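=== Structure Prediction Worksheet ===
Name of assembly: unnamed complex
Input type: mixed (protein and possibly other molecules)
Chain count: two
Listed entries:
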Amino acid sequence: MEPITQEDVFLILKLIEESKYDEMHLEIGDLKIDLKKQGNRASVADSKCVSEKTAKPVVPVPPPEKMKKDKRALDTADALTDESGLIPIKASLLGTFYRAPKPGAPAFVEAGQNIAADDTVCIIEVMKLFNTVKAGVSGRIAKICAKDGEMVEFQQTLFLVQEAGDLDEGMRKSA
Amino acid sequence: MKVARVFVANRGEIALRIIGACRDLGIETIVAVSAADRESKPAKAAGRAVCIGPPQAIHSYLKVQTIIAAALGSGADAIHPGYGFLAERPDLAEACEENGLIFIGPTADNIRKMGDKLLAREMSRKLGIPIIPGSEMVATSDEAQKAATKLGFPVLIKAAAGGGGKGIKTVNAPEKIKEVFEEASGEALAAFGDGRLFIERYIPDARHIEVQIIGDRQGHIIHLFERDCSLQRRYQKMLEEAPSPVMTAELRERICDAAVRIAAHIGYENAGTIEFVFDQDQKRFYFLEMNTRIQVEHPITEMVTGVDLVKEQINVAAGNPLSISQADVKVSGHSIECRINAESPDRNFHPSPGRIDAWDPPEGEGIRIDSHCYAGCVVPPYYDSLLAKLVTWGTDRFDAVKKMQYALDHFTISGVDTTVPFHQHILKNKDYLEGRINTRWIEDTVLGEYGK
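=== Predicted Assembly ===
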């Protein structure tokens, strides 16, 4: 069985929220989820997650209210005082960070831009060897953390991405 | 040229040693760290630590291009390679030159000339410096057989690209030579990318004597006398001392003179060590090989001469003449170094990585410890197992021995196994104390009696 993803959790949440039922019991293989609506909102934080074999909680997700706040914060200048919940794209090697394929060319990505997992987001150059870096995650570029033309270290955070799952949920909520 | 910011391309105690020397000279430092060394003492001691890659050395400390990119990217003007890793890689020295960085070490040409052990032997022979009787390159096991028969068994089969005790095999009898030759050839090719082999006569009662030299770009070369590194296990040094207890004034003068002539012949720059095998039966020495780097055991030379070799390396790499002349170099007293490794002497020196729970080194007059360890630090499994170099200095050998006995007895390390108990055993051994040892002594005598 495929492991349950954050996206799946949102789908499940959506399911119960839009339903007229107050409780939901879900079993997928060894994974059992009990969800209960409290008042008007449902949240994973309030629900009981039981995985019999792994005993691992499902992906921790902030309650919807907070996510809406995050989405709003993204549009403002003082965004991302709280960067938790964003996915970092890290440097897989040490080298010089370039945002564009060549000097003067437009950057691969800009802040706020939507990206797919196999989009190239930058180049890291090591002694004339140019290594393209793929996003590895789909979503929206929330922040560019490295400076063009400067050295980045191994595992240094280059970009912060708001993952697609978060984004959809956020947009659906604010719509 | 001025050296204002040094990039340290190494880890552990030698990285800390280089950072310390730079600090004294008012030079800024940046240290390369792998992901496993982010929290290391050198990372904290340097002006900046730059993470160059994952823990495995092959993807971090051994990547020439990454080291150069990191040095350039952090605004360094020089690279110190320490020992091991890239220290004897001519391509690093060359890449430094191409990128306007100073390599704190010999030239690429120096490293190449001495890296090929067959070429180095030939050069020594031409200079009239004795080499161990042996063969030219042997291409087949038949050639090896012929050469070995002429020399007389036992013989050593050595890799032309070897060195530092690597790529050596002993053959005791003619019927074994084919098998050992094939094995050695394959191993040399795999380890050094060069399968060439040659054969040397085995000298049964030998000491390992080496001479520290340093040269500047103006062509001055001086020696800083000898070290005796005869206490070895599997060709790896365990305990070293300076001066050698078996050198007479006449022998010392000849061996140091030979070392300077070899270095001068190739226009050697920076610090290096010429190694010799001393035949105790015949009272003769033979050129073995040259190591084109600062060595692990350099502190004992510093203790008896008062010269800071790492500072002098930086000085000459910047293009300055040596700050001392041969006449300034005098030996005073005696110094011993014990290599404290994270190894279990009780389990055939099996590596013992892990977390060091307690670390309480000895203190006192005449005790020096070069180490990057502290209580709570982790000894990662990826690198060599050296934890500390415990060095003592005494007015004479007896005094240095007494201090070492005390220091070993008062070195508390827990969490990992160490070679401290093994050194304690050696330092109480009558043969060691009276100087009746050779390069085979640990393996032939000590290992058998240790733990009984």
